[in-house]
Design goal:
With 513 residues, the chain is of the alpha/beta class. Helices cover 44% and strands 13% of the residues. The protein is built from 19 helices and 22 strands. Strands 3-9-20-19-16-14-12 form a 7-stranded mixed beta sheet. The protein has a 4-stranded mixed beta sheet with strand order 5-6-4-13. The protein has a 4-stranded mixed beta sheet with strand order 11-10-22-21. It starts with 6 loop residues before the first strand and ends in an 8-residue tail after the last helix. The relative contact order is 0.16.
């Protein structure tokens, strides 16, 4: 591997600025959650939600705004109702869902950075899809390609990030060309598993071709090698639109992972009760997942959950709420009911990288990770309900994610770790600072923070009383300055750039179809 990486543990707080971008130990690893998932409902209650979802699919149905998708459903044995509504046979639904894989291995262009999604394995992504970005120097502003590239570089620098989400929309690039510039940046500036937008057949095909070239795969190899992930959002309530159906179909044919995620906000686009919102989430998810399996049995998919609630005073989305956490726990139960990987997220509604952002994101993380998620979207940088990605919030989130990574590391119980000799040596009323047992382990015994300042008030004051957000901003810029690009095969780069230049000259993609 080439290029310096940072992430994992860091030096002591007093040396934080000089140590912030240095690698410590083997920080990159596939997360494996050692804890049994928390369950919100009993098995009988989950079955009630499941059966209610099947009833919705059968009786109310899903409006499908895509002619090819409706044809796929009808050819598979579903029935058609008025106004483009498809009614689903419950037994056929379960047969189709049973064909989906329980785990997916996503291939990175770096051979030691593949990510398993499923079982107890966990992959972490950056935030995704914000129109705006912010930092202390520039404030909140529309995203540009330069901003997008900066987030690529910082994401590459932290091994706790496994997958890359489209952090901010480069609004200085025409939307018909945006997928080309974004894909090139992700593939050349990072080794993270990339995201592909469902923005029409041409844009999807272009993105897949860039990824195929960057990974050095033949066309046949690409069709059988998941190298990226995409999200299809149902239009709650109970609707699948043209672009999402097109993406589901195209990703299944290409053998690339699709995450079907209903955006079910209790009280707005879903029933006000969490149980009712979960019924609708589940019905919409099953409908989209079925389409994928009709197109290509065994196509890699992920059960997406994003159920939360709204502020009943304003109608604004709320995240990191107790209701969000309960829905995340229950969504894990539903995904396991169907033996599917689970997607959750770590969102906040806060408008600044402040205490609200921290505690709402932490609540969301606990709901997602302790609910058994396999794919954590929006893991770093999310603000304003997704309208902004923040440089400082990105670093704050990396700190929290590194702490979770450390939490997930197994603890060794052995003669060496039980410390009986050290206990005997110290005896009664002494201390363990100077024992051989401590001296052999003092540098690696505990998590050393990237961002937190553990010094006392006097030392903190003498150094300028720098708060967390300011320290995060400093680390952001230090990380950017220390960035080194990963290696990239020159022949692949030339082929990829030739393809991008040709597609740009041809006018890019028509994103309306």
């Amino acid at each position: 591997m080439t290029g310096q990486r940072s992430g994992g543990r860091r030096g002591r707080a007093a040396k934080r600025q000089s140590e912030a971008v240095k690698q410590f130990d083997k920080a990159w690893r596939q997360w494996v959650n050692p804890y049994p998932p928390i369950e919100q409902f009993s098995a009988d209650q989950i079955e009630e939600i499941h059966l209610a979802s099947l009833k919705v699919l059968r009786d109310t149905g899903i409006r499908v705004l895509s002619d090819p998708a409706r044809a796929h459903y009808l050819n598979a044995g579903m029935t058609s109702g008025a106004d483009n509504v498809i009614h689903f046979d419950p037994d056929l639904v379960m047969d189709l869902i049973g064909q989906a894989p329980s785990a997916v291995t996503l291939k990175s262009r770096a051979s030691d950075r593949n990510v398993i999604i499923g079982g107890r394995n966990v992959g972490i992504t950056t935030s995704a899809g914000s129109p705006n970005c912010s930092d202390l120097q520039g404030g909140r502003r529309p995203g540009t390609q330069a901003d997008f590239d900066k987030f690529c570089k910082v994401a590459q620098s932290f091994d706790v990030i496994h997958l890359f989400g489209p952090v901010v929309e480069p609004q200085d690039v025409p939307i018909n060309l945006r997928h080309l510039t974004m894909a090139r940046s992700v593939m050349t500036l990072t080794e993270k598993i990339p995201f592909v937008y469902f923005r029409g057949q041409q844009a999807i095909a272009d993105s897949y071709e860039i990824l195929r070239i960057a990974n050095g795969l033949t066309h046949d190899e690409f069709l059988n090698t998941p190298t990226c992930y995409s999200v299809a959002n149902s239009n709650s309530p109970l609707q699948l639109d043209e672009l999402m159906c097109r993406g589901i179909i195209d990703s299944a044919r290409a053998g690339q992972m699709m995450v079907l995620t209903p955006f079910t906000l209790a009280g707005a686009m879903a029933p006000v009760t969490i149980a009712g919102a979960l019924v609708m989430q589940n019905a919409e998810a099953l409908a989209g997942l079925c389409l994928s399996q009709i197109v290509r049995p065994g196509a890699p998919v992920c059960y997406g959950s994003f159920t939360s609630n709204v502020d009943m005073k304003t109608g604004a989305p709320a995240f990191g709420t107790p209701e969000y956490v309960k829905a995340a726990f229950a969504s894990g139960q539903l995904a396991r009911r169907y033996n599917l990987p689970l997607r959750s997220s770590a969102p906040t509604a806060s408008n600044a990288p402040d205490a609200q952002a921290a505690y709402e994101s932490q609540m969301s993380l606990w709901g997602a990770l302790m609910g058994g998620t396999n794919l954590l979207l929006h893991g770093a940088g999310w603000l304003e309900g997704g309208l902004t990605i923040s440089a400082e919030k990105f670093i704050i989130d990396v700190e929290v994610l590194q702490m979770f990574a450390e939490l997930f590391k197994p603890l060794e119980v052995s003669d060496a770790t039980l410390g009986l000799e050290a206990i005997a040596d110290v005896g009664h009323g002494g201390h363990f600072f100077g024992t051989q047992h401590t001296l052999e382990r003092f540098e690696t015994a505990f998590y050393s923070p990237l961002l937190s300042d553990w010094s006392n008030f006097e030392n903190w004051s003498e150094r300028g009383a720098v708060d967390t957000t300011t320290r995060a901003n400093q680390i952001w810029h230090e990380t950017l300055n220390a960035y080194q690009p990963p290696g990239f095969d020159p022949a692949r780069l030339e082929e990829m750039d030739d393809f991008i230049a040709r597609r740009t000259a041809e006018g890019g993609a028509d994103i309306s179809q």
